[in-house]
Design brief:
It is found in: Cytoplasm; Nucleus. Keywords: Cytoplasm, Exosome, Nucleus, RNA-binding, rRNA processing. Belongs to the RNase PH family. One of its GO terms (cellular component) is cytoplasm. Its main location: cytoplasm. By secondary structure, the protein is of the alpha+beta class. The protein has a domain of 258 residues: Ribosomal Protein S5, domain 2. Helices cover 27% and strands 23% of the residues. The chain contains 8 helices and 18 strands. A hairpin with a 4-residue loop joins strand 11 and strand 12. The longest helix is centred in the middle third of the chain and has 35 residues. It is extended, with a radius of gyration of 44 Å.
């Protein structure tokens, strides 16, 4: 599904606002949107919110064989997924150009910058090393995916704890969290991406563009930097020509923004660690505000239970009695009834058809008895309609034939002789 294009009016409005140094959400040119970090109950799970852009980060580990050319180094793997839950324009099960570009940029930012000590992930040289996998899921798309993804990835890596292991000879023992405390990863620095959007061939630039600003921009410059002002990677896209002074200016702005974001990340990690040590409540459920509808807990409101009976009696006394309504049943057909308004049933039609069938089948037919001797008092199911024939023990030796919906009819032996039936 393709994204809905902007109209010419919206495009002109956005460009005119940028020329006047105004933004739709009220920010200034170099302002970032609010960043919110929350952690899950397990180590290595976090959600980063950059305005309305939300990214879920999850880190996992596994003991695997190392690569042949790097026998003493662990393996880092990054995977970013763009689902339709984030935006209808993303197609599931298909790697778009945007997804490939974002994954490569994350690998250059975090793996090629050597921010994690991969040699500390080695357990047995040439045999067993730790493979660290970072899965990033975009939950909501409102622009600047790469910045939110890089923050979520580095926060999840800093928060992650791998199981402790011990090596005795050729035997490797893996301990559970109950047996030994998990071990954090060795992280040298925290590279963070900062995006700059350029408009009108580099005349204007904005920091942290949202989704609508990305649609009308001419080019994008992404600078990955740590708090020591060391550039880890830089990438320009969109086909615009930037001057040297513009790149220097963006690098200075990125240094300030990275220092602020790094301080926010460190505070969030310290707060989570303190809450876990004190035994307090933590996790995504605790980070939701109490006054929201989706909250898992609500504050108890005091209820006044005094004089309940008196108040109830007053309410009942003041209330008006219910009106007397006498329902009259409507008889549509015999055997049915209906109260109130509704649709007329079709039971009457069925009964009429049944009556017609019975009238056609109820014609008197001649009953011929076979040459079979029957004792008096027995009942035989003979006749086209299955009507029972009862032989009476009377002196006149008369037979009573019961037919449907007719009174019993007496037939004498003389009549039977004339019809050719056998004598009794």
């Amino acid at each position: 599904m393709k994204e809905t294009p902007l109209s010419n009016c919206e495009r002109r409005f956005l460009l005119r606002a940028i020329e006047e140094k105004k933004r739709l959400d009220g920010r200034q040119t170099y302002d970032y949107r609010n960043i919110r970090i929350s952690f899950g109950t397990d180590y290595g799970c976090c959600i980063v919110e950059l305005g309305k852009t939300r990214v879920l980060g999850q880190v996992s580990c596994e003991l695997v064989s190392p690569k042949l050319n790097r026998a003493t180094e662990g393996i880092l793997f990054f995977n970013l997924e763009l689902s339709q839950m984030a935006a209808p324009a993303f197609e599931p099960g298909r790697q778009s150009d945007l997804l490939v570009k974002l994954n490569r940029l994350l690998e250059r930012c975090l793996r090629n910058s050597k921010c994690i000590d991969t040699e500390s992930l080695c357990v047995v040289a040439g045999e067993k090393v730790w493979q660290i996998r970072v899965d990033l899921h975009l939950l909501n798309h409102d622009g600047n995916i790469i910045d939110a993804a890089s923050i979520a990835a580095i926060v999840a890596l800093c928060h992650f704890r791998r199981p402790d292991v011990s090596v005795q000879g050729e035997e490797v023992t893996l301990y559970t969290p109950e047996e030994r405390d998990p071990v954090p990863l060795s992280i040298h620095h925290m590279p963070i991406c900062v995006s700059f959007a350029f408009f009108q061939q580099g005349t204007y630039l904005l920091v942290d563009p949202n989704e609508r600003e990305e649609r009308v921009m001419d080019g994008l410059l992404v600078i990955a930097m740590n708090k020591h002002r060391e550039i880890c990677t830089i990438q320009s896209s969109g086909g615009i020509m930037l001057l040297k002074d513009q790149v220097f200016r963006c690098s200075k702005i990125a240094g300030v923004k990275v220092a602020e974001i790094t301080e926010l990340i460190q505070k969030a990690l310290e707060n989570d660690q303190r809450v876990r040590k004190e035994g307090g409540k933590f996790g995504f459920a605790e980070s939701i505000a109490n006054q929201r509808i989706t909250a898992f807990k609500m504050e108890k409101a005091p209820i006044d239970t005094s004089n309940i009976e008196e108040k109830a009696e007053e309410i009942i006394a003041e209330a008006e009695p219910p009106p007397e309504v006498v329902s009259k049943p409507v008889l549509w057909t015999p055997g049915t009834a209906q109260i109130g308004e509704g649709i007329e049933n079709s039971w009457g039609d069925l009964e009429d058809s049944e009556k017609e069938e019975e009238e056609e089948g109820g014609i008197d037919e001649t009953v011929i008895l076979d040459d079979t001797k029957m004792d008096t008092g027995e009942v035989s199911d003979i006749g086209s309609q299955g009507a029972p024939i009862v032989l009476s023990d009377s002196e006149e030796e008369e037979m009573i034939i019961l037919e449907p919906e007719k009174s019993p009819k007496k037939i004498s032996n003389e009549t039977l002789r004339q019809t050719g039936s056998s004598e009794f």
